[in-house]
Amino acid sequence: MANIVAIVGRPNVGKSTFFNRLVGQRKAIMDDESGVTRDRHYGYAEWIGKNFTVVDTGGYVHGSDDIFEESIRKQVELAINEATVILFMVDVEAGVTGLDEEFANVLRRSKKPIYIVANKADTFQRGHQAGEFYALGLGEEVFPISSQSGSGTGDLLDEVVKHFKTEDEENPDEGIPKIAIMGRPNVGKSSFVNLLLGEERNIVTDIAGTTRDSIHSRYKSFGKEFILIDTAGLRRKTKVHEDIEFYSVMRSIRALEESDVAVVMIDATRGIEAQDVNIVGLAIKNKKGVVILVNKWDLVEDKGTNTAKEFEEMIYEKLAPHNFMPIIFTSVLTKQRVHKAIEKVIEVYENKRMKISTSKLNEVMLKEIENYPPPSIKGKFVKIKYVTQIPTHNPTFAFFCNLPQYIRESYTRFLENKIRKHFGFEGVPINVIYKKK
Ligand code: GDP
Ligand code: GDP
């Protein structure tokens, strides 16, 4: 369910201010997660219970102060390809400018819903001036807003969320895991996909500036059924290095959002690198199941009895505090442990759907809590009375207690570890929340 809202527009109209307003609330939560590098140009937001990803396309192409046309083309291309809804931001103080018109000309090619967001409408009078942007001859409607004060944003978002896809109630694919294969270029993603599908596929597009939607195909391979969110073949032929990064990040986000389990492939000959850490961090942030494959294991020479173990420790160290992801050493080339990898993916998917009965949970966890109660803070004693798993898509455990605000992060980790110790949940991020009772 990838609902993506892209903000496009010339520099200085207020895109990043608006972006921060939309995702600001979430940022604090994301900040807690160590080992996760935050990217300022996309984030998660919510409006009336609907979640979406916001992309500040301007943020991606900033810094390349060379040619504006190039910047416009890239921003708009990204928005057209990836977004569910496009917000074209302009500035009421400045009125219609030549650059706005250039944006409008490129945007006109899009079939996606476009709204003109007339920013800096801080006063009623300014709001009135927003009407002049209808002259751009584009979009469904013009919405005057003030990113600074937030006024007008509610009306805009009410419209935007109407375009979002909703969960299909009678989904024939219910119960079949959706898998995204992620990893740096050259790690072996396409080879893995080809091996799974048992056929050579050639889906590289030559036309610059074209990508296609990810394909959801249902497969049966190695005795298991799954849906592959296919982005591996979408390698763009481009000479500019940053372009590859830029598109691979967008594709990763998109594939992730649509998947249940992310298979993150790491190159055994290179070890775990910063970008691998980012990918795993993204998956965890998105509450997806994660299976790590250390691929090209055949190329590691002089393997001793401890080589895999040491490799594993190194990975967990880089991903700390997250250590719940299974790691499998594969060679797609020699088909070593590929079968096991698929089985693990299915297992993680099942873990993600696992529900623990309230009686069992209380029986086990209240005992753990009794043995190690929350440390008192400023003379306050927290008493946890009851725990239950909440019926959500991701394993979430609510602990009912008298003083939720006095529980430390370290105690949350303790509870998470105990849940894992007793019930497993390998490969799956779990949420621990507190409710006042
Ligand atoms: P971007 O380049 O499009 O990302 O624009 P920024 O978000 O960096 O904003 C450019 C300038 O416009 C900054 O000085 C902001 O403080 C200002 N700005 C943004 N939104 C508003 C608004 O709603 N009203 C006013 N008066 N200024 C704004
Ligand atoms: P992608 O960019 O992640 O899709 O990577 P590819 O699937 O295109 O693989 C990049 C290169 O690595 C190709 O030459 C593959 O044949 C090679 N390769 C993939 N998996 C393995 C493996 O397990 N062992 C070895 N030795 N080479 C591999």
TrEMBL record:
<feature type="domain" description="EngA-type G">
    <location>
        <begin position="177"/>
        <end position="353"/>
    </location>
</feature>
<comment type="function">
    <text>GTPase that plays an essential role in the late steps of ribosome biogenesis.</text>
</comment>
<dbReference type="InterPro" id="IPR032859">
    <property type="entry name" value="KH_dom-like"/>
</dbReference>
<dbReference type="GO" id="GO:0042254">
    <property type="term" value="P:ribosome biogenesis"/>
</dbReference>
<feature type="binding site">
    <location>
        <begin position="183"/>
        <end position="190"/>
    </location>
    <ligand>
        <name>GTP 2</name>
    </ligand>
</feature>
<keyword id="KW-0547">Nucleotide-binding</keyword>
<keyword id="KW-0342">GTP-binding</keyword>
<keyword id="KW-0690">Ribosome biogenesis</keyword>
<feature type="binding site">
    <location>
        <begin position="295"/>
        <end position="298"/>
    </location>
    <ligand>
        <name>GTP 2</name>
    </ligand>
</feature>
<dbReference type="Pfam" id="PF01926">
    <property type="entry name" value="MMR_HSR1"/>
</dbReference>
<dbReference type="GO" id="GO:0005525">
    <property type="term" value="F:GTP binding"/>
</dbReference>
<dbReference type="InterPro" id="IPR006073">
    <property type="entry name" value="GTP-bd"/>
</dbReference>
<protein>
    <recommendedName>
        <fullName>GTPase Der</fullName>
    </recommendedName>
</protein>
<feature type="binding site">
    <location>
        <begin position="119"/>
        <end position="122"/>
    </location>
    <ligand>
        <name>GTP 1</name>
    </ligand>
</feature>
<comment type="similarity">
    <text>Belongs to the TRAFAC class TrmE-Era-EngA-EngB-Septin-like GTPase superfamily. EngA (Der) GTPase family.</text>
</comment>
<dbReference type="InterPro" id="IPR016484">
    <property type="entry name" value="GTPase_Der"/>
</dbReference>
<dbReference type="GO" id="GO:0043022">
    <property type="term" value="F:ribosome binding"/>
</dbReference>
<dbReference type="InterPro" id="IPR005225">
    <property type="entry name" value="Small_GTP-bd"/>
</dbReference>
<feature type="binding site">
    <location>
        <begin position="56"/>
        <end position="60"/>
    </location>
    <ligand>
        <name>GTP 1</name>
    </ligand>
</feature>
<comment type="subunit">
    <text>Associates with the 50S ribosomal subunit.</text>
</comment>
<dbReference type="Pfam" id="PF14714">
    <property type="entry name" value="KH_dom-like"/>
</dbReference>
<feature type="binding site">
    <location>
        <begin position="9"/>
        <end position="16"/>
    </location>
    <ligand>
        <name>GTP 1</name>
    </ligand>
</feature>
<dbReference type="InterPro" id="IPR015946">
    <property type="entry name" value="KH_dom-like_a/b"/>
</dbReference>
<dbReference type="InterPro" id="IPR031166">
    <property type="entry name" value="G_ENGA"/>
</dbReference>
<keyword id="KW-0677">Repeat</keyword>
<dbReference type="InterPro" id="IPR027417">
    <property type="entry name" value="P-loop_NTPase"/>
</dbReference>
<feature type="domain" description="EngA-type G">
    <location>
        <begin position="3"/>
        <end position="168"/>
    </location>
</feature>
<feature type="binding site">
    <location>
        <begin position="230"/>
        <end position="234"/>
    </location>
    <ligand>
        <name>GTP 2</name>
    </ligand>
</feature>
